[in-house]
């Protein structure tokens, strides 16, 4: 959050968007953690690979 220069409201907005798009999901392995841990889903990983391929085209 701080490295991206976002406040908590902005961060919540982006996390909700990514969850709704099924690109990330909250890690259910530690439900009582102080801070939620988000993991990239298979669809999110596929998106990242596609983005990197497109990025190479424009370099």
Task: Describe the SSE topology.
Blueprint: H1 8-20, E1 24-26, E2 38-40, H2 42-57
Antiparallel strand pairs: 1-2
Structure description:
The structure is a single chain. With 59 residues, the protein is mostly helical. The protein has one domain. 49% of the residues lie in helices and 10% in strands. It has 2 helices and 2 strands, in the order αββα. The protein has helices at residues 8-20, 42-57, and strands spanning 24-26, 38-40. It has a two-stranded antiparallel sheet with strand order 1-2. The longest helix has 16 residues, at 42-57. It is globular and about 40 Å long. The mean pLDDT is 93.
Low-confidence stretches: none
Count of structural domains: 1
Strand order of the largest sheet: 1-2
- What distance separates the N and C termini? 28 Å
Mean pLDDT: 93
Largest sheet: 2 strands, antiparallel
Question: Helical residue percent?
Answer: 40-55%
Instruction: Return the structural class.
Output: mainly alpha
Question: Over all CA atoms, what is the radius of gyration?
Answer: 14 Å
Number of strands: 2
Which strand-content bin applies to the residues? Answer: 5-15%
């Amino acid at each position: 959050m701080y490295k991206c220069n976002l406040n908590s409201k902005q961060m919540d907005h982006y996390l909700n968007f990514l969850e709704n798009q099924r690109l990330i999901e909250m890690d259910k392995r530690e439900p009582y953690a102080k801070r939620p841990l988000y993991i990239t889903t298979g669809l999110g990983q596929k998106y990242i690979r596609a983005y990197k391929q497109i990025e190479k085209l424009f370099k």
